[in-house]
Amino acid sequence: MRIHRETWVLVIVLMGLLLFNQLLRAALVPSLSQPNTVKVSKSVYALIGDMDVPTPENQGFISNTTFIITDDSVVVVDPGGSKQIGEMVIAEIRKVTDKPISHVINTHHHADHWMANDAFTALSPRPQIVGHAYMRTKAKEIGEQWLGIISRLTNKANIGTKVVLPDTEIVGGRQWKMGNLTLQFYHPAHAHTKGDIAIFIPEEKVLVAGDIHFYKRTPGFQDASPLGNLAALKELKKLNPKHVIPGHGPVTDINGLQYMLTYIEKLESEVSRLFKDGLEDFEMNDKIKLGDYRNMSGFSSRFGINVNRMYAEIEARDFD
Ligand SMILES: [Zn+2]
Questions:
Q1: CB atoms < 10 A from the CB of 211, how many?
Q2: pLDDT at 23 over 90
Q3: Which residues are bridge partners to 130 per DSSP?
Q4: CA of 149 relative to ligand 1 center, distance in Å
Q5: Parallel, antiparallel, or unpaired: how do β-strands 206-214 and 243-248 relate?
Protein backbone atom coordinates (compact mmCIF):
# COMPACT_ATOMS: atom_id res chain seq x y z
CA MET A 1 0.00 0.00 0.00
CA ARG A 2 2.80 2.38 0.94
CA ILE A 3 4.56 1.79 -2.39
CA HIS A 4 1.33 2.55 -4.18
CA ARG A 5 0.86 5.79 -2.39
CA GLU A 6 4.45 6.89 -3.09
CA THR A 7 4.03 6.05 -6.76
CA TRP A 8 0.92 8.20 -6.92
CA VAL A 9 2.68 11.07 -5.20
CA LEU A 10 5.50 10.79 -7.73
CA VAL A 11 3.07 10.77 -10.66
CA ILE A 12 1.27 13.84 -9.32
CA VAL A 13 4.56 15.68 -8.74
CA LEU A 14 5.72 14.84 -12.28
CA MET A 15 2.44 15.97 -13.80
CA GLY A 16 2.68 19.19 -11.82
CA LEU A 17 6.20 19.79 -13.11
CA LEU A 18 5.09 19.11 -16.68
CA LEU A 19 2.21 21.56 -16.37
CA PHE A 20 4.50 24.14 -14.78
CA ASN A 21 6.96 23.70 -17.65
CA GLN A 22 4.21 24.28 -20.21
CA LEU A 23 2.94 27.35 -18.38
CA LEU A 24 6.48 28.70 -18.18
CA ARG A 25 6.98 28.17 -21.90
CA ALA A 26 3.66 29.87 -22.67
CA ALA A 27 4.78 32.82 -20.56
CA LEU A 28 8.14 33.04 -22.33
CA VAL A 29 6.93 32.83 -25.93
CA PRO A 30 5.55 36.22 -26.94
CA SER A 31 2.16 35.46 -28.42
CA LEU A 32 -0.86 37.37 -29.62
CA SER A 33 -2.58 36.83 -26.28
CA GLN A 34 0.48 37.95 -24.28
CA PRO A 35 2.35 40.57 -26.30
CA ASN A 36 5.58 41.88 -24.86
CA THR A 37 5.25 45.66 -25.28
CA VAL A 38 8.20 47.75 -24.10
CA LYS A 39 8.32 51.52 -23.58
CA VAL A 40 11.58 52.48 -25.31
CA SER A 41 11.58 56.25 -24.83
CA LYS A 42 9.08 59.04 -24.08
CA SER A 43 7.19 58.56 -27.37
CA VAL A 44 8.35 55.21 -28.73
CA TYR A 45 7.12 51.71 -27.91
CA ALA A 46 8.20 48.32 -29.26
CA LEU A 47 6.40 44.99 -29.37
CA ILE A 48 9.01 42.25 -29.24
CA GLY A 49 8.37 39.21 -31.39
CA ASP A 50 9.40 35.64 -30.67
CA MET A 51 12.97 34.62 -31.61
CA ASP A 52 11.82 31.41 -33.32
CA VAL A 53 10.57 30.86 -36.88
CA PRO A 54 6.77 31.04 -37.30
CA THR A 55 5.09 28.25 -35.27
CA PRO A 56 1.51 27.55 -34.15
CA GLU A 57 2.52 28.77 -30.63
CA ASN A 58 3.88 32.18 -31.67
CA GLN A 59 1.29 32.50 -34.50
CA GLY A 60 3.93 34.05 -36.77
CA PHE A 61 4.61 36.95 -34.40
CA ILE A 62 8.42 36.81 -34.84
CA SER A 63 9.55 40.31 -35.82
CA ASN A 64 9.46 43.53 -33.81
CA THR A 65 6.82 46.20 -34.24
CA THR A 66 7.42 49.83 -33.26
CA PHE A 67 4.91 52.59 -32.68
CA ILE A 68 5.78 56.24 -32.37
CA ILE A 69 3.34 58.65 -30.73
CA THR A 70 3.70 62.15 -32.17
CA ASP A 71 1.75 65.27 -31.16
CA ASP A 72 -1.12 64.48 -33.52
CA SER A 73 -0.95 60.85 -34.55
CA VAL A 74 0.69 57.43 -34.29
CA VAL A 75 3.24 56.03 -36.76
CA VAL A 76 3.65 52.25 -36.87
CA VAL A 77 6.84 50.64 -38.19
CA ASP A 78 6.58 46.99 -39.32
CA PRO A 79 3.05 46.05 -38.22
CA GLY A 80 3.80 42.27 -38.31
CA GLY A 81 3.10 39.17 -40.39
CA SER A 82 -0.69 38.71 -40.41
CA LYS A 83 -3.99 40.54 -40.07
CA GLN A 84 -4.36 38.93 -36.62
CA ILE A 85 -0.99 40.33 -35.49
CA GLY A 86 -1.96 43.75 -36.85
CA GLU A 87 -5.19 43.69 -34.84
CA MET A 88 -3.19 42.81 -31.72
CA VAL A 89 -0.84 45.75 -32.45
CA ILE A 90 -3.79 48.14 -32.82
CA ALA A 91 -5.17 46.89 -29.48
CA GLU A 92 -1.78 47.46 -27.81
CA ILE A 93 -1.61 51.00 -29.24
CA ARG A 94 -5.10 51.71 -27.92
CA LYS A 95 -3.96 50.82 -24.38
CA VAL A 96 -1.59 53.81 -24.57
CA THR A 97 -3.24 56.43 -26.80
CA ASP A 98 -6.43 57.12 -28.74
CA LYS A 99 -4.67 59.33 -31.34
CA PRO A 100 -5.34 58.28 -34.95
CA ILE A 101 -2.82 55.98 -36.68
CA SER A 102 -1.63 58.08 -39.61
CA HIS A 103 1.18 55.97 -41.16
CA VAL A 104 2.32 52.36 -41.37
CA ILE A 105 5.93 52.04 -42.54
CA ASN A 106 7.27 48.77 -44.00
CA THR A 107 11.07 48.43 -43.54
CA HIS A 108 11.51 45.73 -46.24
CA HIS A 109 9.67 43.03 -48.18
CA HIS A 110 10.03 39.99 -45.87
CA ALA A 111 6.53 38.82 -45.07
CA ASP A 112 6.82 38.67 -41.27
CA HIS A 113 7.16 42.48 -41.27
CA TRP A 114 4.31 43.76 -43.44
CA MET A 115 1.48 41.25 -44.00
CA ALA A 116 -0.32 42.93 -41.08
CA ASN A 117 -0.85 46.01 -43.30
CA ASP A 118 -4.23 44.37 -43.96
CA ALA A 119 -5.47 45.08 -40.41
CA PHE A 120 -4.90 48.83 -40.84
CA THR A 121 -7.06 49.23 -43.96
CA ALA A 122 -10.16 48.87 -41.77
CA LEU A 123 -9.28 52.00 -39.75
CA SER A 124 -10.96 55.31 -40.43
CA PRO A 125 -9.25 57.45 -41.57
CA ARG A 126 -7.17 54.82 -43.34
CA PRO A 127 -3.44 55.23 -42.56
CA GLN A 128 -0.96 55.75 -45.38
CA ILE A 129 1.14 52.62 -45.95
CA VAL A 130 4.72 53.51 -46.78
CA GLY A 131 7.66 51.52 -48.18
CA HIS A 132 10.63 51.73 -50.53
CA ALA A 133 9.87 51.14 -54.25
CA TYR A 134 11.97 47.95 -54.27
CA MET A 135 10.11 46.69 -51.19
CA ARG A 136 6.79 47.26 -52.95
CA THR A 137 7.87 45.41 -56.11
CA LYS A 138 9.20 42.40 -54.19
CA ALA A 139 6.24 42.31 -51.80
CA LYS A 140 3.91 42.12 -54.80
CA GLU A 141 5.98 39.27 -56.21
CA ILE A 142 6.13 37.09 -53.07
CA GLY A 143 2.97 38.12 -51.15
CA GLU A 144 0.51 35.39 -52.15
CA GLN A 145 3.12 32.66 -51.87
CA TRP A 146 4.10 33.77 -48.36
CA LEU A 147 0.49 33.79 -47.15
CA GLY A 148 0.52 30.05 -47.86
CA ILE A 149 3.91 29.45 -46.24
CA ILE A 150 2.99 31.30 -43.02
CA SER A 151 -0.38 29.53 -42.97
CA ARG A 152 1.32 26.12 -43.10
CA LEU A 153 3.94 26.99 -40.47
CA THR A 154 1.42 28.48 -38.01
CA ASN A 155 -1.48 26.08 -38.54
CA LYS A 156 -3.55 28.80 -40.28
CA ALA A 157 -2.99 31.53 -37.65
CA ASN A 158 -3.05 34.08 -40.52
CA ILE A 159 -6.39 32.92 -41.95
CA GLY A 160 -8.19 35.65 -43.92
CA THR A 161 -5.08 37.88 -44.27
CA LYS A 162 -4.88 39.69 -47.63
CA VAL A 163 -1.85 41.13 -49.41
CA VAL A 164 -1.90 44.91 -48.93
CA LEU A 165 1.01 46.76 -50.55
CA PRO A 166 2.35 50.21 -49.63
CA ASP A 167 0.50 53.05 -51.34
CA THR A 168 3.26 55.63 -50.77
CA GLU A 169 6.92 55.29 -51.69
CA ILE A 170 9.76 56.56 -49.52
CA VAL A 171 13.43 57.14 -50.33
CA GLY A 172 16.50 57.54 -48.13
CA GLY A 173 17.42 61.06 -47.00
CA ARG A 174 13.80 62.10 -46.42
CA GLN A 175 12.80 63.71 -43.19
CA TRP A 176 9.29 64.04 -41.79
CA LYS A 177 8.60 66.69 -39.23
CA MET A 178 5.67 65.43 -37.17
CA GLY A 179 4.86 67.88 -34.38
CA ASN A 180 7.52 67.51 -31.71
CA LEU A 181 9.35 64.67 -33.46
CA THR A 182 11.45 64.22 -36.61
CA LEU A 183 11.57 60.95 -38.52
CA GLN A 184 14.77 60.64 -40.57
CA PHE A 185 14.79 57.92 -43.22
CA TYR A 186 17.86 55.90 -44.23
CA HIS A 187 18.13 53.62 -47.23
CA PRO A 188 21.43 51.77 -47.78
CA ALA A 189 21.86 50.60 -51.39
CA HIS A 190 21.99 46.90 -50.47
CA ALA A 191 22.12 45.65 -46.88
CA HIS A 192 19.58 43.10 -45.58
CA THR A 193 17.70 43.56 -48.88
CA LYS A 194 17.83 46.16 -51.64
CA GLY A 195 14.78 47.92 -50.21
CA ASP A 196 15.64 48.51 -46.55
CA ILE A 197 14.46 51.56 -44.66
CA ALA A 198 15.71 52.49 -41.17
CA ILE A 199 14.28 55.38 -39.14
CA PHE A 200 16.04 57.62 -36.64
CA ILE A 201 14.23 59.94 -34.25
CA PRO A 202 16.89 62.46 -33.13
CA GLU A 203 14.79 64.10 -30.37
CA GLU A 204 14.76 60.82 -28.43
CA LYS A 205 17.86 59.24 -30.03
CA VAL A 206 15.87 56.17 -31.06
CA LEU A 207 16.90 54.06 -34.03
CA VAL A 208 14.33 51.73 -35.59
CA ALA A 209 16.71 49.60 -37.62
CA GLY A 210 14.48 47.01 -39.30
CA ASP A 211 16.38 43.89 -40.32
CA ILE A 212 19.61 45.79 -40.99
CA HIS A 213 20.01 44.89 -37.34
CA PHE A 214 19.45 41.49 -35.70
CA TYR A 215 20.32 41.24 -32.02
CA LYS A 216 21.19 37.86 -30.46
CA ARG A 217 19.53 36.19 -33.43
CA THR A 218 21.38 34.91 -36.50
CA PRO A 219 20.64 37.28 -39.39
CA GLY A 220 18.68 35.99 -42.38
CA PHE A 221 21.06 36.79 -45.24
CA GLN A 222 19.19 35.10 -48.09
CA ASP A 223 18.63 38.43 -49.88
CA ALA A 224 21.48 40.33 -48.22
CA SER A 225 24.82 41.80 -49.08
CA PRO A 226 26.70 40.99 -45.85
CA LEU A 227 29.35 43.61 -46.68
CA GLY A 228 26.65 46.16 -47.55
CA ASN A 229 24.95 45.30 -44.26
CA LEU A 230 28.24 45.88 -42.44
CA ALA A 231 28.64 49.30 -44.11
CA ALA A 232 25.03 50.19 -43.21
CA LEU A 233 25.59 49.27 -39.54
CA LYS A 234 28.66 51.52 -39.47
CA GLU A 235 26.58 54.39 -40.87
CA LEU A 236 23.78 53.83 -38.36
CA LYS A 237 26.29 53.70 -35.52
CA LYS A 238 27.43 57.23 -36.44
CA LEU A 239 23.98 58.47 -35.43
CA ASN A 240 24.99 57.58 -31.86
CA PRO A 241 21.57 56.17 -30.92
CA LYS A 242 20.70 55.75 -27.27
CA HIS A 243 17.99 53.16 -27.97
CA VAL A 244 18.06 50.63 -30.82
CA ILE A 245 15.05 48.57 -31.89
CA PRO A 246 16.32 45.71 -34.03
CA GLY A 247 14.16 43.88 -36.58
CA HIS A 248 14.52 40.77 -34.43
CA GLY A 249 15.67 40.42 -30.83
CA PRO A 250 15.36 42.54 -27.69
CA VAL A 251 15.58 46.35 -27.58
CA THR A 252 19.18 47.41 -27.08
CA ASP A 253 21.60 50.34 -27.50
CA ILE A 254 24.72 51.18 -29.49
CA ASN A 255 26.50 48.15 -27.99
CA GLY A 256 23.82 45.96 -29.51
CA LEU A 257 24.58 47.50 -32.92
CA GLN A 258 28.25 46.77 -32.34
CA TYR A 259 27.34 43.15 -31.49
CA MET A 260 26.10 42.48 -35.03
CA LEU A 261 28.80 44.66 -36.59
CA THR A 262 31.49 42.53 -34.91
CA TYR A 263 29.73 39.34 -36.02
CA ILE A 264 29.88 40.36 -39.69
CA GLU A 265 33.50 41.54 -39.33
CA LYS A 266 34.48 38.17 -37.84
CA LEU A 267 32.57 36.38 -40.59
CA GLU A 268 34.39 38.47 -43.21
CA SER A 269 37.87 37.86 -41.82
CA GLU A 270 37.31 34.14 -41.23
CA VAL A 271 35.76 33.47 -44.65
CA SER A 272 38.61 35.48 -46.28
CA ARG A 273 41.20 33.41 -44.40
CA LEU A 274 39.64 30.09 -45.41
CA PHE A 275 39.03 31.34 -48.97
CA LYS A 276 42.76 32.01 -49.30
CA ASP A 277 43.37 28.45 -48.02
CA GLY A 278 41.32 27.25 -51.00
CA LEU A 279 38.22 26.00 -49.14
CA GLU A 280 34.76 25.99 -50.68
CA ASP A 281 32.00 27.73 -48.67
CA PHE A 282 30.34 24.46 -47.59
CA GLU A 283 33.68 23.24 -46.18
CA MET A 284 34.08 26.30 -43.96
CA ASN A 285 31.16 26.10 -41.51
CA ASP A 286 32.88 24.15 -38.72
CA LYS A 287 36.26 25.86 -39.19
CA ILE A 288 35.04 29.44 -38.78
CA LYS A 289 36.03 30.83 -35.36
CA LEU A 290 33.11 32.77 -33.91
CA GLY A 291 33.16 32.21 -30.14
CA ASP A 292 29.84 33.02 -28.50
CA TYR A 293 28.16 34.00 -31.77
CA ARG A 294 27.51 30.29 -32.32
CA ASN A 295 24.94 30.58 -29.49
CA MET A 296 22.81 33.10 -31.40
CA SER A 297 19.22 31.99 -31.87
CA GLY A 298 18.61 30.19 -35.19
CA PHE A 299 22.34 29.64 -35.79
CA SER A 300 22.24 26.11 -37.20
CA SER A 301 19.52 26.86 -39.74
CA ARG A 302 20.87 30.23 -41.00
CA PHE A 303 24.64 30.12 -40.68
CA GLY A 304 25.20 28.15 -43.90
CA ILE A 305 23.53 30.92 -45.94
CA ASN A 306 25.56 33.57 -44.06
CA VAL A 307 28.80 31.85 -45.07
CA ASN A 308 27.57 31.31 -48.61
CA ARG A 309 26.62 34.98 -49.11
CA MET A 310 29.88 36.24 -47.57
CA TYR A 311 31.90 33.80 -49.70
CA ALA A 312 30.18 35.03 -52.88
CA GLU A 313 30.99 38.65 -52.05
CA ILE A 314 34.63 37.95 -51.15
CA GLU A 315 35.06 35.91 -54.32
CA ALA A 316 33.57 38.72 -56.46
CA ARG A 317 35.69 41.35 -54.66
CA ASP A 318 38.92 39.38 -55.12
CA PHE A 319 38.25 38.99 -58.85
CA ASP A 320 37.97 42.77 -59.32
ZN1 LIG B 1 14.01 40.35 -43.10
A1: 27
A2: no
A3: 105, 168
A4: 15
A5: parallel
Burial readout 124-158 (b: 16 or more C-beta within 10 A, e: otherwise): eeebebbbbebbbebbeeebeebbeebbebbeebb
Q: Give distance in angstroms: CA of 202 to centre of ligand 1.
A: 24
What average pLDDT does the segment 45-69 reach? 95
Q: 165 or 16: which carries more pLDDT confidence?
A: 165
Encoded amino acid at 44, one letter: V
Cα of 71 vs centre of ligand 1, distance in Å, is 30
The domain covering 31-212+224-252 belongs, at the CATH homologous superfamily level, to Ribonuclease Z/Hydroxyacylglutathione hydrolase-like (3.60.15.10)
Cα separation of 229 and 192, whole Å?
6
Q: At what angle do helices 226-238 and 299-319 cross, to 10 degrees?
A: 100
Average pLDDT rounded to a whole number, residues 204-208: 98
- CA–centroid distance, residue 160 to ligand 1 (Å): 23
Is the pTM higher than 0.70?
Answer: yes
Cβ neighbours of 8 (radius 10 Å): 10
Q: What are phi and psi of 243, to 5 degrees?
A: -125, 135
pLDDT of residue 314: 95
Q: How far is the CA of 305 from the centre of ligand 1 (A)?
A: 14
Which pairing describes strands 206-214 and 101-105: parallel, antiparallel, or unpaired?
unpaired
